[in-house]
Write a structure and sequence with these properties.
This protein has 468 residues and is α/β, with parallel strands linked by helices. It is 54% helix and 10% strand. The protein has 20 helices and eight strands. It has a five-stranded parallel sheet, sandwiched between helices. A three-stranded mixed sheet has the order 1-2-3. Strand 1 and strand 2 form a beta hairpin.
């Protein structure tokens, strides 16, 4: 490299360093090296593992800084350069490095029975699914902080917010961000080991290890990683031995400088059934909540989904009908669009606002009557399904009791302003996760089965026709 090019690059570097925070510059921009300046183009070499990411994320910044030094007609080209060593975890020994090299890769781990890859691990194949990337995440006021924090963690694992705790009601995008983090880390830092699981998967894996005497293998799987992403961590509540194990896993990884990202349907302070020491650790990093999307964000989500799925011949105003009617969460919003498109395909009707209204009227009717009380809903459900109040609130899992109970919980969620924990308490002191399951199960049945849909519609109509 010539002395002149070196001096030019030092000036460009100083502007880059002033434009971003210290950690971002150190990880992504400091490793860049100038290769050539010819015909108005500055060619810069980036490490192979991060070349594409640097071009995508910092290409415009590089162009601006180079133009400030060399003139406005200067262009920047980023090419592959020599590979850089893997980013080190902050605190681990040579023994840790040796152990990691000798450990089996994630995709070849076998359970103690030797009958295949352990099925308790969550969706490893979905980590790199483009649909769950940052590029496909629609940003709005309701999720801006969580998105920014997740992106920072993915760029700088173990160096930014640790732990990162993302919370929000079901279907608002927590799992999307978790998978986006996994995908970006694996893309930009292939040398880092990443494990993604749910709280339920962690519990099942732990119980299986206890039963089969495989605790050493279990600990290697969850503690010998650089990034651990745990979805629905609230599932650990009231599971004393699992909480104990997760507490030690958390501490081991945190002290080693590994990145931890957790999601939950509630903030740590509301996980009252969880041990205090775990709640304290969850709150020690950054807690970022996600709220249901506002109207503009809902429209943006629908437009992006239409583009992704290449949905054509969509009449003006159709998406607006869906966005105005569905305001609970992203999952329900996209589900409504899918149902409208499916109905259009099956019936041959055009994708118009009128079609969207007809489909949504049957699935998500407008609710204009006064809010009901939980007691009113329970009484109506008992009368409709011919159950006693004691049966409805009992622990019975018989089908004749379970389905009416799920319908009552579903309508309680729809027709009242009560929270999930409150609904659960009024239905035999059940956990909020039972309410979530009831809502999801009812949604599935009313879409797939006309008799189930009629039962729910009839009970809803009964409740809405008894205003006083």
């Amino acid at each position: 490299m010539s002395t002149e090019l070196e001096q030019i690059w030092l000036r460009v570097q100083s502007k880059l360093e002033a434009a971003v925070d210290e950690s971002t510059y150190r990880v992504w921009l400091a490793p860049l090296r100038p290769h050539e300046l010819a015909h108005g183009t500055l060619t810069v070499e980036a490490p192979t593992r991060s070349c594409a990411w640097v071009q995508e994320r910092f290409g415009r910044l590089l162009q601006t800084c180079a133009a400030a030094v060399l003139g406005p007609k200067t262009t920047v080209k980023v090419t592959h350069g020599p590979a850089q060593p893997k980013p080190a975890r902050h605190a681990h020994s040579q023994a840790d490095d040796d152990r990691r090299r000798n450990a089996q890769p994630i995709d070849t781990l076998r359970d103690t029975k030797g009958d295949g890859i352990n099925r308790a691990l969550l969706d490893q194949e979905t980590a790199g699914n483009p649909r769950f990337s940052f590029n496909h995440f629609v940003i709005g006021d309701s999720n801006r902080l969580a998105h920014a924090a997740a992106l920072t963690v993915a760029e700088l694992p173990g160096q930014a917010y640790n732990p990162l705790f993302i919370c929000g009601s079901p279907g608002v995008g927590k799992t999307h961000l978790l998978r986006a983090i996994a995908g970006l880390v694996q893309s930009c830092n292939p040398g880092l080991s990443v494990r993604t699981c749910t709280g339920e998967a962690f519990t099942n894996e732990f119980q299986l290890a206890l039963a089969n005497g495989g605790m050493d293998l279990f600990k290697n799987r969850f503690r010998d990683v650089d990034v651990l992403l745990v979805d629905d961590v609230q599932f650990l509540e009231r599971k004393t031995r699992t909480e104990e194990e997760f507490f030690h896993t958390f501490n081991t990884l945190y002290e080693a400088g590994a990145q931890l990202v957790l999601t939950s349907d509630r903030p740590p302070r509301d996980l009252q059934a969880l041990e205090d020491r775990l709640r304290e650790r969850f709150q020690a990093g950054l807690v970022a909540d996600i709220h249901p999307p506002d109207l503009n964000t809902r429209l943006a989500i629908l437009r992006k989904r239409v583009h992704q799925d290449r949905i054509e011949e969509l009449a003006p105003g159709t998406l607006e009908v869906i966005a105005h009617r569905i305001d609970l969460n992203v999952r329900t919003l996209e589900g409504a669009l899918i149902r409208v498109v499916a109905f259009s395909s099956l019936t041959g009707r055009s994708l118009t606002p009128e079609l969207a209204t007809d489909v949504l009227d049957s699935l998500y009717p407008n609710i204009t009557s006064r809010a009901r009380t939980l007691a009113e809903i329970q009484a109506a459900a008992c009368q409709h399904f011919k159950l006693s109040p004691e049966e409805l609130l009992s622990s019975s899992r018989a089908a004749r009791v379970t389905w009416p109970r799920q319908v009552a919980m579903y309508l309680a969620r729809e027709l009242t302003n009560e929270s999930l924990p409150a609904i659960g308490r009024h239905f035999g002191r059940r956990d909020h996760t039972t309410v979530i399951h009831a809502v999801r199960r009812t949604e599935q049945k009313i879409v797939a089965d006309s008799a189930s849909r009629k039962a729910v519609d009839d009970l809803r109509s009964t409740l809405q026709s008894t205003d006083s």
